[in-house]
Amino acid sequence: MIEPASPAPPVDADRASARTPVFDRRRAWLITALIVTFMLINHADKAVLGLAAVPIMDELGISNSTYGMISSSFALLFSLSGLVVGFVSARISSRVLLFTMAALWAVAQLPALIVASVPALVAGRVLLGAAGGPAASMSMHALYKWFPADRRGLPSALQISGAALAMLIAAPVVTWLITAFGWRSAFVVLAVTSTVWSLAWWRLGHDGPYGQEPAPRAKALTSGGRSAHVGPERLPYRRVLLSGTVLGSVAAAFGASWALALSHAWLPVYLRTQQGMTPGGAATLISGISALSLVLLLSVPPLADRLRRRGASDGWASAAPQGIAVAVAGLAMAAFPFADGHAVRIGLLVVAFGGHAVAFPMHYMTTSAVAPPLQRGAVFGIVAAAGTLPSLVAPYLTGHLLDSATSPGAGYTQAFLLSAAVMLVCGLVALTLIRPQRDARRLGLTQVAGHAPRAAATI
User: Fold this and answer.
1) For residues 162 and 297, is the Cβ–Cβ distance under 8 A?
2) What is the pTM of this model?
3) How far apart are CA 81 and CA 135, in angstroms?
4) pLDDT tens readout for residues 358-400
5) Among 429, 449, 457, 458, which residue's Cα sits nearest to residue 255?
6) Which domains does the chain have, with CATH numbers?
7) 3, 224, 228, 300: which has the fewest C-beta neighbours closer than 10 Å?
8) Alpha-carbon torsion (97, 35, 84, 389), positive or negative
9) Are 362 and 321 in contact (CB under 8 A)?
10) Rounded to whole angstroms, what are the CA distances from 204 to 70, 91, 98, 159?
C-alpha cells in the first residue's frame, strides 16, 4: 500500500519575508546619480571625435572615408565585448565591472595624445569601444539591482538620459575646449574625468538587493495565503532571445542606434560644412537635440510605467513608445534634407536625431520582462550587442557615400535617406512584435509583486 505524501511543512512568515529585498531609497538614488554620470562620461567620450572632427581632419589631412573608418573602428569590439561581459556579469560584481570600464576609458584617450596619427586614433577608439560596449547594458543591470520591477521606469530613463546630458552639457564644454585650447585638451579633460569617476565608484558603488543569486533550487514559499517564487529557473537563451518582445526590442534599438551613430560621427561635421554653422552654433543645436531627447526620456518611460499599473495593453504601454518614436524620427530624417526654410529644416533635424531616444530605456525594460533575473545581465549584453551594430557600419558607410557622391550635399542626402529607411523598418517591426506580457506567459514566467518576472517554479 502506497502511503500518501506528507503535506509540505508551512514556511515561517519571517523566513519568507527575509528573502524579500528591502528597497533602500536613499542608496538607490545615489547609485542612480553615479550611473547617470557614468553614462554622461561614456557618451562624451564617444562624441569627442565627432566634435573635434574638423580640426583633426584638417591637421592630419584625412579624407571622409578615412575619418569614417576611424569613427567606425570604435565599434570593432563594441558588440563583442558587450556580449562577453554580459555572460560574465553573473560572476563578477557590477562594482568591479563599471570601475574597470571607466578606468579603461581614461587609458583610451592616451594614444591620440602621445602620437597624433590615424593609427593612434584607431587604437584609442578600438579600446574605447571595447570598454564601452558593455556600459549601457551593465550599468542598467547594476541599476536594476537597486529598484523593484515597478519602480524602474524613471531610473531607466535617467540612466539613458546620460547620453542626452552628454550632448546637452558636454558638447558645449568640449567644443569650447577644442576652440580655446585645441582638440587635444578635450581628450585630456575626459581622461581625467573618467579617472575621477572610477575612484568615486570604487568607494561608493555596491550591488543592490534585487536580482542577487538566489537559493540553488527553485521553491515556492507560501506566506499569508500568497505564493512567492524564490530561486527562478534558468530558461534556454534561445527561447528568450527568439521571443517577439526581444526581437522587437532589438529592432527598436537598432534603428535608434543607427541615428545615434550618425549623430556622433557626422552631425557636427554636417552642421559646420553644409549648414555653415560656427563651432558654437553647431554645439548649441546639438544641445537642443539633446534637450528634446531628455524631455522624452523623463516623460515617456514613467508614463509607460503608469499605463502598465493601470492595466494598459502591451501595445500601448510597451510597443508603441519604442516603435512610434523610431518610426517618427525616421520620417523626419527622410524629410529634412528636402525641407524649404531654415527653421523647418532645423526642426525636422531635431526630431530626426532626438526623437528616437526613448527606444533605449524602453528596450531594456521590455527585455527585462521576459528574462529571469539570473540571466538578465547576459540577455542585456546580447540585446545591446545586436542593437548597437550600426555603430560599426553607419559612420564608415556615410564617409564612403560622401567620397563617392557627386557632391558632399548629395552624399549626406543619401546617408540620411538610408538611415530613414532603416529606422522606419525597425520601428514597424517593434510595433508588431513587442508584447512582453504575452511572451512572459509563453515562457512560463510569473510576476511577483514588486519584483522582476521570474521563471515559474515547479513544486
Assistant:
1) no
2) 0.69
3) 10
4) 888 787 778 888 888 778 777 887 887 777 788 888 888 999 9
5) 429
6) 25-455 (1.20.1250.20)
7) 3
8) negative
9) yes
10) 35, 20, 12, 17
